[in-house]
Amino acid sequence: MKCPYCGVDEDRVIDSRPAREGRATRRRRECSACSSRYTTYEAPEEQVVFVAKSDGNREPFDRNKVYRGISIACNKRPVALERIDQMTRAVEAAALAAEGNEVSSRQIGEWILGQLAGTDEVAYVRFASVFNRYGNVNEFVEELAKLNSGSRNSSQSG
User: Fold this and answer.
1) Is the pTM of this model over 0.85?
2) Using H for helix, E for strand and C for coil, what is the string for 36-65?
3) Which of 28, 65, 95, 132 is deepest in the core (most CB within 10 A)?
4) Longest Cα pair distance anywhere in the chain, in angstroms?
5) CA separation (Å) from 6 to 35, 38, 39?
6) What integer pLDDT is reported at residue 137 of this predicted model?
7) 121-131 and 63-73 are packed helices; what angle lies between their axes, rounded to 10 degrees?
8) Which tens digits make up the pLDDT trace of 7-29?
């Protein structure tokens, strides 16, 4: 590591500790030539995942968009912010684990629906109504019937 003060690339690490919620390592260094001290951060290189949109465009995956979509669906529902963050992390992890470096926006929506289905039925229906772009009330009612039969089946089997 080159010293930011004198440019010499010989230093020693004085202290190391976790940083950025454990996703990086903070290191205090001291230059062997000028004795100046400085801080560096070491983190794994982040994988870039692209989202293939329905209009054919591609853009980098944005966890904030996922968080915002889930938050809007859960607005005024008894869903803790911690749970919204957990769902967002689960969708982000699925996108990073997907084969290749591209995932469709449709797949991301399906992952979000999967998270919401097990969390809050009203939030699920809110998100599904926007995501699936129901053309009429009958399509919406069909989705509610599927959701209702799924929750009945799971409550009867327990």
Assistant:
1) no
2) CEEEEEECCCCCCCEEECCCCCEEECCHHH
3) 95
4) 76
5) 10, 12, 15
6) 78
7) 120
8) 999 999 999 999 887 888 999 99
